[in-house]
Amino acid sequence: MLPVIALVGRPNVGKSTLFNTLTRTRNALVADMPGVTRDRLYGTARVGERPFLVVDTGGLSGEGDGIDALMAKQAMLAIEESDAVLFLVDGREGMTAADEAVAAMLRRTGKPIYLAVNKTEGMRPELVSAEFHRLGLGEPYAIASAHNRGVADLLELVFDALPAREGEGEPEEERGICIAIIGRPNVGKSTLLNRMLGEERVLAFDMPGTTRDSIFVPFERDGQRYTLIDTAGVRRRARVKEVLEKFSAIKSLQAMAEANVVLLVLDAHEGIAEQDAWVAGHAVESGRAVVVAVNKWDGLDSEQRDWVRGELERKLPFLDFAPLHFISALHGSGVGNLFESLVKAYRSATRKLSTPELTRILEDAVASHQPPLIRGRRIKLRYAHQGGQNPPLIVIHGNQTDSVPDAYRRYLANVYRKQLRLHGTPVRVEFKGGENPYEGRKNKLTERQVKRKKRLVKHVKKKARKKK
């Protein structure tokens, strides 16, 4: 599972700036769902080849009343979910009483704490960090999040200290098809997992919010290996109230990162909520293949079923590529059909595509619908090849490719999905300018053939002269 790093500190120390620097966007993955405040942001980030999840928290003042207490509660939930904590302080303002209060709170968590002295651009690191030794959190590390200075070195230290995770490096062929069962609380994820397995492997009961730890369940069906990832943990009823607050985007993001296919479970009785669209959007953004299971379909009359179908079209139009199943996890109806779609989606997402076939489809698509004119010149798309799998990435080479509109990109992606019969997976299209490296190969081959022909004619003439 991806490691999780929480950003903690008092207001205005640069947590959001660091968050945006790490996620490389101001539109970072934001979890706006019930029970999660707007001050708690989730994002995916990468340092070198190491991906991780980062959580931004609201500013802590050290006070225990009012809104400060609520933000402190949210910060503590983020800290509990994390593998390490970056405690940010302001190097320009120096140490404050609020910093000391937050440091005292962090020491009680037992989590690995890394003290980052921010806003140190133009200052001597050893001098600006000196007074923060008094916080008792170890060596302070000087960084400048706005300029991305010192951040990568600090995160390398964090990663090197993290323990190896169970199952890390497990060969993919031993896991089989890895399926993340994703959905909001109480949509029936655990019930569906048990039905797919044919046994009670995880505890399921009719109370929302039982999510804490993801469960990896390997099994085999019809000779095919699978690993199901359920984001609902096994919890005692007495602890449901506590766990209710801990349903988190982190578990869904981690499960999606581990999976080949996302099985999105929706509740037909509740309709399509904002959180459903949020999770579905992240699945598409991550490039994972998706299969949608609308649960609790039994018991609905025809009018209610029409309403649900309308909700799907209105709120999840970006999932038009995903197979749609209407099921009852409790009674088992429709569950068996999921496996065919899951396998098809996996094979489509990991399929190898030939360059001649991709180029032929491109030529037909361009012939049917030409790219637009840019400043009076036509965009020329010459050839295509595969650039990656899961999701299929198709790289198209040509001229003026920087000017290809998004609408035309979507048109080509849809054409490829239809022509290649790719089921349940998004298709990504990238454009590259410059000359075709394969152009001229035919001419070079012809030149070699001409030289060979000349040598052959010369040889025949020489033999003819000898006979004379």
Keywords for this structure?
Rossmann fold, 15 helices, 468 residues, single chain, alpha/beta, globular, 37% helix, 17 strands, GMP Synthetase, Chain A, domain 3, six-stranded mixed sheet, 3 domains
How does this structure look, described?
The protein has three domains: 4-161, P-loop containing nucleotide triphosphate hydrolases (Rossmann fold, 3-Layer(aba) Sandwich); 172-349, P-loop containing nucleotide triphosphate hydrolases (Rossmann fold, 3-Layer(aba) Sandwich); 355-432, GMP Synthetase, Chain A, domain 3 (2-Layer Sandwich), CATH 3.30.300.20. Mean pLDDT is 81; it is low at 27-39, 202-212, 233-247 and 436-440. The protein contains 15 helices and 17 strands. It has helices at residues 15-23, 66-81, 97-107, 125-129, 151-161, 172-175, 189-197, 240-244, 249-258, 274-285, 302-315, 338-349, 355-368, 406-419, 441-467, and strands at 4-8, 41-47, 50-56, 84-90, 113-118, 141-142, 177-182, 215-221, 224-230, 261-267, 289-295, 324-326, 373-374, 377-378, 380-388, 393-399, 428-432.
